[in-house]
Fold these 3 entries.
Entry 1:
Amino acid sequence: MGALLCESAPFFGVSEMRPARAQAKAQNVEDVDLSLVERLREGDRSAFRKLVERYQQRLVAAALGVVGNYQDAEDVAQEAFLKAFRNIGSFRGQSSFYTWIYRITLNLAIDLSRKAYRRSERSFEDSTAGNQEYSSKDGDGGFSAHAEQPDEQLHRAEIRQRFLRALSELSPQHRAVIVLREIDGLSYAEISDLVACSKGTVMSRLHHARKRLQKALEEYLPDDIPESDEN
């Protein structure tokens, strides 16, 4: 549960960097979540339904950034909630409930993506053979002349597979920040709040993760890739 969190408290606490109103709102959200968790532990199934209502769309959106398919993202979010339900006793409150279930969702989404691309790799020869036949037909045959060429399909598949492999090889801490920043599009401040680390730690982890991913994808990328702006 604590794998996304800092190993030690940041020099400046997150609460000191947030406006008082935002701090109070965030604390209220966490208090409500903890109350719902306690009710769930006592056997109140309605509390679980309320947790699903509070976070389902956010988790679907987070999963969608990894799996790239809305139906798969919904399935991942549902599986994450079921896993959280079965393991609610292991939630200790050291992080927010959302941080805890977000990590579950992220790991499930990455696992699903890896399995999907293993399957696509096995069936790739069949699919490219079909595309060759499809693109060879002229307009009178009723087929499109603009079907994706096999070499283009292979190139895209290779890049995505290499990316997913590199992403899965990152530590949970580094994987979380790269997905939150580059896929979910959160600001450094938002990531800092979510994973309970200082902005400096988030930026350091992002730098490390980007370097690892760039190294894995260097043959597909331009020579000079600028860092994202600091916001």
Entry 2:
Amino acid sequence: MVEHATAVVPGGDFTPKLRPWNTTYTQVGRDQYRIDFSKPENPSTLLLTSANSTYQRMINTYHYGMGLNGRTAYTSTSNVVGKNLANTLVTYTDGVSSSTWKWIEFFFNTTPDTGFPYMQQILLSGDETLLNRAEAYAELGQFDLALRDLNTFYSTRVVNYSASTDAVTLEKINNFFGISDAKEGIITAILAAKKK
């Protein structure tokens, strides 16, 4: 896994392959964010597919969105870094229900009046690849490298990220998750990051 994930970034720096949550995405409007998120030329998009789907039509109703607890976990300081995350959410008129609202439906016309809805879905991203490599490093007992990858991930997710104060450490992992074993703690932190 380490070898294959590292091959994604021959220069060794994963940052250009990560989604720019705490920079570009915070500066563009909702519609541009949706375009930028799923466009094929996005450097973080490693594997993309297009499928016949009406999912985007359904996710926009609060029934399929996340409630207050989901929204809080997705954006708040409830993470190992202890700072707000720059994830993009849309809150509905009830003020509680939210969605990531990141998918765009593309309608393919077969005639002037009919057609099929399609949606591009990212099957593998630079973010996921980096966290997979971090998990592999942890499994191999290379904890410094696993933490380095986890910190690279959070550097693009945390609002006003500072490497000197926001870096994930074994101490922070122990304090947040209550796990003193390095391997178990790092893997738990990585799995929690994958949910964000």
Entry 3:
Amino acid sequence: MSEFKLDDGDLMAYLAGEASPEVVQAIESSEATLMEVNALKSLDVSFFKSQFRSNCPDTQQLLEYEVGFLSDELYAEVKHHLSNCPHCQAEVATLAEVELESESVSTLTALKSKLDELIAAGKTILDTVFVPPAPQPAFALRGEQQGVQTYQAEGYQVILSIQPPVASEKNAKVEGQLNNLDDPLTEFQGTISLYKDESLLKEEPIDTFGYFSFGNIGFGAYDLLIELSSSTLTVRDIEIE
């Protein structure tokens, strides 16, 4: 077996129970290294662990990274850290498994509660419907309409552009525009909220021209809630694949 070089970080990981199988094997096959580890056992392991991972994002940040809650800047920082930290990689993998389990038994109804609140306040709820794209001419560029979805309710139109993740990425980006077909010069004021499994993920303002954007969106089905002064639009079952 080739020699496996150990450093202080490997010993800390071993004491914290987070060492890789290769590190565990290397430590436990060396009597001298085991003696060094046993001598360290008198130290407070939790303190040892905190020193070892003092530069790592905390669990809350890793969870927000996994579900796409972080800002683009912070998301990039955590992603860079993960590329060099097997311990955080393992923690994110565990959080992903927990997230999948919680989704299957989720009882969160934030979207329903919000709609009930708006109805009680006398707001009009407009459920948009998907508008199939028009047939493309034979000379149209392949993929020209890929990722673009249009929804409509009464005089409102919602156009979504879903930008898939690039190579090595796992999260997509959603950009959109709200249009008032009856009054194209409308200046919008309102907010747009992104829901998944009935729970609120993100909320952003709509600019006066109706534009909005959500970054770091994982795969799955989503709902949008667009709150305007007089009415509220819903866009249901947006698939990010």
